[in-house]
Design goal:
This protein is α+β, with helices and mostly antiparallel strands. Helices cover about 25% and strands about 35% of the residues. The protein contains three helices and ten strands; from the N terminus they run αβββαββαβββββ. Strands 3, 4, 6, 7, 9 and 10 form a six-stranded mixed β-sheet that branches. The model is unreliable at about 15-30 (pLDDT under 50).
């Protein structure tokens, strides 16, 4: 039968376990929950994006949760996913289930495409007149939430193919 470990060795082993457990806890707390995602499809192009803003712990975004400058930058910047569209082509939007549970609406410009928030994970439409799309494209926003309370926002740019 082997001899029991010395008190010094046992102490080092316990200290090592404590250090490893602390490091694991720090690693887990440094992880952020990913924001829900939305995919937009047109032709052979699919673009996915996590929410620019998402209210994780409340039913709606609070003032200051998501700076307006961040949304404005996303809608004018090059980091917005671009989807080329041809006349008569179907555009599809797929949202994560948590977005569907919150209700969501597709918006082009300032025009909502649905009268009441959707509660499904998929919606499709045909953009009525692609000739109206300016050369730099038109914004497609997906807004999660009901009424005037937004829970999350995604921005894509539809462009003439």
């Amino acid at each position: 039968m082997p001899a029991p470990p010395s008190p010094e060795r046992r102490g080092r082993r316990i200290a090592s376990i404590v250090v490893i457990a602390a490091a694991a806890a720090l690693t887990l707390t440094a992880c952020e929950k990913p924001a829900p995602g939305v995919s937009v499809f047109a032709g052979t192009t699919t673009k996915f994006q996590e929410a620019i803003c998402w209210a994780f712990d409340s039913p709606a975004l609070e003032p200051g949760d998501c700076a307006q400058s961040l949304i404005a930058e996303a809608s004018t910047g090059d980091n917005v996913p671009r989807i080329p569209v041809v006349p008569g082509e179907t555009i599809g939007i797929s949202v994560d289930p948590v977005v569907a549970d919150s209700g969501w609406s597709p918006v082009i410009g300032q025009q909502r495409l649905v009268s009441t928030p959707l509660e499904t994970t998929y919606y499709r439409f045909t953009y009525p007149d692609l000739q109206e799309i300016p050369p730099d494209g038109v914004l497609l926003q997906v807004v999660a939430g009901r009424g005037d309370a937004a829970k999350g926002i995604w921005v894509f740019r539809l462009e003439r193919a």
